Every structure is written in C-alpha cells, then in structure tokens.
Amino acid sequence: MKQTILIVDDEINSLRVLSATLRKERFNVETARTGEEAISRFKNNHVDLIISDYRLPGIDGETLLEEVKAKNPNMPVILMTAYGTIERAVDAMKKGAYTYLTKPVNLDIMISMVRDALQKREWALESKDDIPGRYQFLNIIGKSPAIQEVFSMIQRVSKTDAAVLILGESGTGKELVARALHYTSLRANSPFIPIDCTTIPPELMESELFGYEKGAFTCAYDNKVGLIEMSEGGTIFFDEIGDLDFALQKKLLRFLQEKEIHRLGGKKKIKVDVRILAATNRNIEEAVEKGEFRADLYYRLNVITIHMPPLRERKEDIPIIASHFLELFSRKNKKNIPGFDSKVTDILINYDWPGNVRELENVIERAVILCPYEQITVDCLPRKLRLVAEENQFESDGFNLVEMEKRVVLKALEKTSWNQSRAAALLGISRKQLRTRMKNLELLPG
Ligand SMILES: Nc1ncnc2c1ncn2[C@@H]1O[C@H](COP(=O)(O)OP(=O)(O)OP(=O)(O)O)[C@@H](O)[C@H]1O
Ligand SMILES: [Mg+2]
C-alpha cells in the first residue's frame, strides 16, 4: 500500500516540486496551503507523514506540529525553514518534530529523511511478524552466529558515541547496520544523514559537508547549511568512505578532532555534536598501506569495527531472509504465495550470491512478479541460478553416461511436448535412432 504524505506550504512552486518528487518515489501526496487546511485534511484523511513549512499564513508550522502531536504522537512531522528560522526549527524538534529541512530543500535528503521517518514509525507501530525475535533485529534478519554477533555488537555500542566502521562486500547490509545503530541510540530522535562518497563530486563535497557563507565564492548567493551541521544531535553515515577524496580526508579528520566546523568563507566556528559511522566495501587497510587513505583518519573512524560476512559464508540465513522477502513482495504485489518449491530452496542455498542479500532480494522480487503459481518454482528463477542447479545435478550424478543420456533425451522430449520428430531434430539424430534410445532407456513401453 502506498503511504500518504501531506505537504503544507503556501508557496505554490515549492508545493509543486516537492509533490512531484515524492510522487516519483511512489508516495501518495496531499497538499495544503495553510495550517488550518492541513489540520482538516489530517483529521479527515489517512496521512502517514507531514512535511510543513515553518512560516505559514494563519497558524504556523509549530502550532500545526503541536495540534498534530496532541492527536497522534506517532505522526512524523518534518519542518522546512528558511535560513533565518533555523533556531526556531531546532526548538520545534524539542517539541517532537522529526527533523527539519532548510530551504531550498535538497530533494535527495528530503527523500531519505521521509523514508527514515516512515521506517521508524513502522518499527514503533508494528508488532513483528512470524520471524522469532531473536532472528530479527529491527530490519536485519539472520540466525547465523555471525549475524547474531552483529546484533549483540549493535546493542553494545549503540548507546555510546564511538565511531563505527562497517566493512563488508556490496549488498551485505552495511547501511542497514548503520541505521540500526542510529535508531537504537540516544540520538534516534535526531536526524540520520547518509552521505554517499561516490555520488557527490569531490569539488562539491566540501561545500555539501561544511556549508558556506554568502559570498564565499561566485555562486554563493546565500548562506548554506552543510550536511554536518544539519545532523546536529544525530548521526552522520559516510557510505563508501574509501572513496572520499584525499584532500577532504584531512578536513574531515580536523572536524572529528575538534568537533567544530566553519562554513566556507565563514569566520565563526560552529560546534556540532554528531556521531560518525562509516562503511566501505574496499579493503581499506590495503588503501592505507598504499597511501591512498590517511592512516590517522582510518584510526579515528575505526574505533569499533563491524564486519558483515558475505551471504555464502552464512548459508543458514538464506532460507529465512528469502521467506521474509517472499512475504514482503507477495504483499506488495497482492499475491498469495506461501512458499518455495523444495528444489528452489536447494538452489537458493547452493548458489554463491556474489551480490549478497541485495541480489537475493532482487531474485525473490522477480520470482514473485513472474510466478503464476501458488509456489515459487524453478522456472521463476533467473537462468544463472537454474544453471547452478543443473551443474549440481551433474555433480551428484557423477559421470554416468547412461544417466546423462537419459537426462538429455528427457529434456529434449519435454521441450517438444514429447513430439518425437522434433525432439530427434533437437538432438541431431533421426527419429528412428531416438526411438531406439528411448527403448534402451526404458522411456517407451515394450
Ligand atoms: N540481514 C538482512 N536481512 C534483511 N534484509 C537485508 C539484510 N541484509 C541486507 N538486506 C537488504 O539488502 C539490501 C542491501 O543492503 P544494504 O544496502 O544495507 O547493503 P550494503 O552493504 O550497504 O551494500 P553496498 O555496499 O552495495 O552499498 C537492502 O535492501 C537491505 O534491506
Ligand atoms: Mg550501502
């Protein structure tokens, strides 16, 4: 089911841009131009999250926040403010706003905050489904000793402010762990800001992180609050830290040591209280040895290490994670698929998952969409996985020529719906030769 977001802003252009962005992300969007209109919409319609401008004609964003929280304390409210009203927005967070966005709104950050807020509400509301509690920690599922160790590690370190470095191949759940660390910490009510060091170009990174003052460079028409400052009180997650530009590594280190920043072109030092998490799928120790990554920064970031093992090294997690995705995607696609064919389970366990949990997630989603049956069968799996199954069968049959011949002949017959002429053509033999073989292989009566 799509979730509904109510956007409240008196500026029609801003309403348009925000609605279009969120609709593209597959949310339902409702809009209101005043606080009064928002309250009536909120009372009469289903709403999952509210984004409201701080300054509104009539009742303002803060009063709207109070009214909403009085009726529904779980409703996430995100406030938008122009630069001059940031102090008030911070006050509003104390009254229960989920977070605030500075205008002009950075759309990627808005989407990420909306997702986090909704996720957090779901965790608060949802009683967990049929996976036993000890096999699930927030959104992370797993029964293998390695994942159980990750759960206990998260619990032990989340209440501290220690920097955590999360290592592991692509798709092993590093970001999931970072979010779990934030949402079980004392900072959970403040923002979680993920920064992907591979997608922000190095020349923009510095101003994105630290912000700038009006006039700092030619196009700095106004002050800009950077991402570090925006995460005040919360957690900042440097994803793919191994790709952070070398010059910036030094600037980040300085911030970690001094806990204060100054915006580009600004003189004032600004204290920021933020916890740092980082992740990478690169071999960062090697990068340090080669001089590509600063050793001093590495030690700062690596107070605690959490290592996410690849899925192929914790095969006992595959069936429960697969079932979890089956249920999730069945619900999303309004299908009722209770389980997997046992052959499918075997294939899922035997495959070595180079793309880890993300690949498993994609395979199950695809299977749910394609599968016309009550069960996920081998035909609904991608070719790559089916080939693995055939190879495994080959291994288990050994090199028995008769068995091999029987399998190939049967396969040709099945493919042609037991049309002997066509099967023979497929096998490159005559129909007569095929019949002789079928007789020998006891595939024909008599
Ligand atoms: N143990 C798990 N249980 C349930 N879902 C998981 C688990 N691990 C990963 N996922 C899911 O797999 C996908 C990939 O996870 P995530 O983005 O955290 O991986 P990552 O290690 O950050 O990958 P990359 O290095 O490619 O960024 C996500 O959709 C996540 O929800
Ligand atoms: Mg990631």
Annotate the secondary structure layout.
Elements lengths: L3 E5 L3 H13 L3 E5 L2 H10 L4 E5 L7 H11 L5 E5 L4 H9 L4 E4 L4 H19 L10 E2 L2 E2 L3 H13 L6 E5 L5 H10 L8 E5 L5 H9 E2 L11 E2 L1 H4 L4 E5 L6 H13 L1 E2 L8 E2 L3 E6 L3 H6 L5 H7 L2 E5 L8 H16 L6 E2 L1 H9 L5 H15 L4 E2 L6 H15 L3 H15 L4 H8 L3 H10 L6
Parallel strand pairs: 1-2, 1-3, 3-4, 4-5, 8-15, 8-16, 9-12, 12-15, 17-18
Antiparallel strand pairs: 6-7, 10-11, 13-14
Helix pairs in contact: 2-3, 13-15, 14-16, 17-18, 18-19
Mean pLDDT: 88
How many strand segments? 18
Number of helical elements: 19
| Count of folded domains | 4
- Report strand %: 5-15%
- What about the largest sheet? 5 strands, parallel
Oligomer: single chain
Helix content: 40-55%
Q: What global shape is seen?
A: elongated
CATH architecture label of the largest domain: 3-Layer(aba) Sandwich
Assign the CATH superfamily of the largest domain.
Answer: P-loop containing nucleotide triphosphate hydrolases
Distance between the termini: 59 Å
**What is the level 1 CATH name of the largest domain?**
Alpha Beta
Radius of gyration: 28 Å
Brief digest:
The chain has 446 residues and is an alpha/beta fold. Helices cover 48% and strands 15% of the residues.
Quickly list its features:
446 residues, alpha/beta, Rossmann fold, 4 domains, five-stranded parallel beta sheet, 19 helices, 48% helix, 15% strand, elongated, binds magnesium ion
Structure, explained:
- There is one protein chain.
- With 446 residues, the protein is an alpha/beta fold.
- The chain has 4 domains: 4-125, Response regulator (Rossmann fold, 3-Layer(aba) Sandwich); 150-308, Rossmann fold, CATH 3.40.50.300; 312-394, Helicase, Ruva Protein, domain 3; 399-440, Arc Repressor Mutant, subunit A (Orthogonal Bundle), CATH 1.10.10.
- It contains 19 helices and 18 strands.
- It has helices at residues 12-24, 35-44, 61-71, 86-94, 107-125, 145-157, 174-183, 202-210, 227-230, 246-258, 284-289, 295-301, 317-332, 342-350, 356-370, 383-397, 401-415, 420-427, 431-440; strands at 4-8, 28-32, 49-53, 77-81, 99-102, 136-137, 140-141, 164-168, 192-196, 211-212, 224-225, 235-239, 260-261, 270-271, 275-280, 304-308, 339-340, 375-376.
- The strands form 6 sheets. It has a 5-stranded parallel beta sheet, with helices on both faces. The protein has a 5-stranded parallel beta sheet with strand order 9-12-15-8-16. Strands 6-7 form a two-stranded antiparallel ribbon.
- Helix 3 (61-71) links the parallel strand 3 and strand 4.
- Helix 14 crosses helix 16, helix 17 crosses helix 18 and helix 18 (420-427) packs across helix 19.
- The longest helix is centred in the N-terminal third of the chain and has 19 residues, at 107-125.
- The N and C termini lie far apart (59 Å).
- Mean pLDDT is 88; it is low at 126-130.
- The structure holds adenosine-5'-triphosphate (ATP) and magnesium ion.
